[in-house]
């Protein structure tokens, strides 16, 4: 469970509600004030307009997977890089002791299809450059799909404040049209407040909903791609017949370099093999 995401979102909304309920001092809470921030037409404009933009600008198959995207975030699968290194070293020890063909039986026990594919490619005696190119291509395709999904939520975060401004303009137009040219309007303050609520909704939707979702999806992509790149580097080292201890040190060094920001996600994929994108 991704508790940081849940606590962050819930904490943000709770603090907003608390801030909107304060009247005069931090201890004077008036929950009736929350009604000042409720407007059905503003919700329809901002939420409806944003969702319409997302639906119009993305394939139906991607939009339909919205529940699964939330499931990825809430039920956060752990990408354990240390466990990946341990498994790679285990395969290296088997290969050093019994040869590459002995890896097939152990590979069939793997739950990760990418790891299994990588091992089977070297068991089948494929050329090292070909194996690296195939695996790197798989990583790039995976990252591209993830990037498309994250971009969908980033576009939504841009659309929400825009529709907030649209709602504000609609409210201002209605306020001016209904204003009495002779005596003014006794409800100008109320009308102005309603006009600004749509902007408020748009900003909240963008920064407290869509942006966190996009950031979490990109983080998950980086974690998964890092684990896969460790598999690629490890499998290439196994095929080259390198010592298991050296392979562990190499992968741990790769991991530390990535954690320190020494390589970008794409740059890190080139390391050790200079594979073309």
Overview of this protein structure:
By secondary structure, the chain is mainly alpha-helical. Helices cover 75% and strands 3% of the residues. It has eleven helices and two strands. It has helices at residues 3-21, 40-57, 60-63, 66-74, 81-98, 103-107, 113-123, 128-177, 188-239, 244-259, 265-270; strands at residues 22-23, 25-29. The protein has a two-stranded antiparallel ribbon with strand order 1-2. Strand 1 (22-23) and strand 2 form a beta hairpin. Helix 4 crosses helix 9 and helix 7 runs parallel beside helix 9. The longest helix has 52 residues, at 188-239. The model is unreliable at 263-277 (pLDDT under 50).
Short description:
75% of the residues lie in helices and 3% in strands. The chain contains 11 helices and 2 strands.
How confident overall, as mean pLDDT? 85
Number of strands: 2
Strand content: under 5%
- Gap between N and C termini: 34 Å
> How much helix is in the residues?
over 70%
């Amino acid at each position: 469970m991704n508790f940081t995401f849940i606590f962050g979102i819930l904490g943000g909304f709770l603090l907003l509600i608390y801030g909107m309920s304060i009247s005069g001092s931090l201890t004077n809470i008036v929950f009736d004030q929350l009604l000042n921030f409720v407007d059905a037409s503003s919700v329809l404009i901002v939420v409806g307009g944003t969702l319409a933009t997302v639906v119009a600008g993305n394939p139906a198959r991607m939009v339909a997977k919205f529940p699964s995207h939330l499931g990825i975030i809430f039920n956060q699968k752990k990408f354990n890089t240390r466990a990946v290194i341990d498994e790679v070293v285990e395969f290296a020890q088997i290969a050093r002791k019994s040869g590459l063909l002995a890896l097939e039986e152990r590979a069939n026990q793997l739950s990760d299809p990418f790891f299994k594919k990588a091992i089977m490619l070297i068991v089948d005696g494929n050329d090292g450059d070909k194996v690296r190119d195939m695996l790197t291509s798989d990583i790039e395709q995976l990252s591209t799909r993830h990037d498309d999904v994250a971009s969908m939520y980033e576009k939504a975060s841009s659309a929400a404040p825009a529709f907030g401004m649209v709602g504000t303009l609609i409210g201002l137009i209605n306020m001016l049209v209904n204003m009495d040219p002779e005596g003014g309007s006794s409800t100008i303050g109320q009308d102005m407040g309603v006009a600004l609520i749509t902007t408020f909704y748009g900003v909240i939707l963008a920064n407290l909903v869509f942006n966190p979702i996009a950031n979490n999806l990109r983080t998950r992509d980086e974690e998964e791609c890092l684990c896969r790149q460790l598999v690629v580097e490890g499998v290439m080292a196994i095929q080259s017949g390198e010592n298991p201890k050296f392979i562990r040190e190499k992968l741990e060094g790769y991991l530390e370099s990535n954690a320190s920001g020494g390589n970008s996600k794409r740059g890190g994929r080139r390391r050790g093999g200079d594979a073309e994108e």
